[in-house]
């Protein structure tokens, strides 16, 4: 049976995944502490993304209703 490169690469990735899963399960308390620290570090980014997701539809409405009228009145001529 001949194994090509892509099959061998897939087998290696599966073996590494299984080994890393077993190591994480054996050290679950340490893995959870690391995950909690990572969440704590990235919490400002997560909150910023959530706020941007919530505010974006409101800003789109505001841009189309208010800024479109302002843009029509104050169009400037380009220097170039």
Oligomer: single chain
On the 0 to 100 scale, the average pLDDT is 88
End-to-end distance: 70 Å
Which overall shape is indicated by the principal axes computed on the Cα atoms?
elongated
| Tally of helical segments | 2
In percent, how much strand structure appears in the residues? under 5%
Largest sheet: none
Structural account:
The structure is a single chain. The chain is mainly alpha-helical and 80 residues long. 85% of the residues lie in helices and 0% in strands. It contains two helices and no strands. The longest helix is centred in the middle third of the chain and has 46 residues, at 28-73. It is elongated and about 75 Å long. The termini are far apart.
List the helices and strands and how they pair.
Elements: H1 5-26, H2 28-73
